[in-house]
Amino acid sequence: MTKIIFIDGNGEEKEVEAQNGLSLLEVAHNNEIDLEGACEGSLACSTCHVIVEKKFFENLPEPSEEEEDMLDLAWGLTHTSRLGCQIIIDDKLDGMTVKIPSGTRNMSVE
Question: Which of 29, 71, 84, 86 would bridge with 48, disulfide CB 3.0–4.6 Å?
């Protein structure tokens, strides 16, 4: 299990144990953390946008072109922004802190 620390838009921290192989979005949902994920991880929105702690961001695989396109739509984009559905938990992420922006931008039309 890997320790992940989520910080919500109000600055509240929640530390969770994450199962390796799950996406960060799945970990958030499994632990009742308010990370939207409107497209359910299909890389069709930017609502699971998170801001990754710099030292861990540099160790993540490069984002795909599709992820970069979705990040362009994210609210509050930073240099260490990623989509939670594209971060797969493994041992090298143990202790990672991610911030959840206080807002999202959902462009989907129902």
Answer: 84
Burial call 25-57: b when 16+ CB within 10 Å, e when fewer? bbbbbeeebebbbbbebeeebbbbbbbbbeebb
State pLDDT tens for residues 72-82.
Answer: 999 899 999 99
Q: Hey, what are 94's tokens?
A: 């143990």
Residue found by looking up tokens 């695989």 in the block: 61
Comparing CA positions, the residue from 50, 42, 39 lying closest to residue 75 is: 50
Percent of residues in the chain assigned helix, strand, coil, to nearest 5: 20, 25, 55
DSSP state letter for 76: T
Residues 2-20: pLDDT tens digits?
A: 999 999 989 999 999 999 9
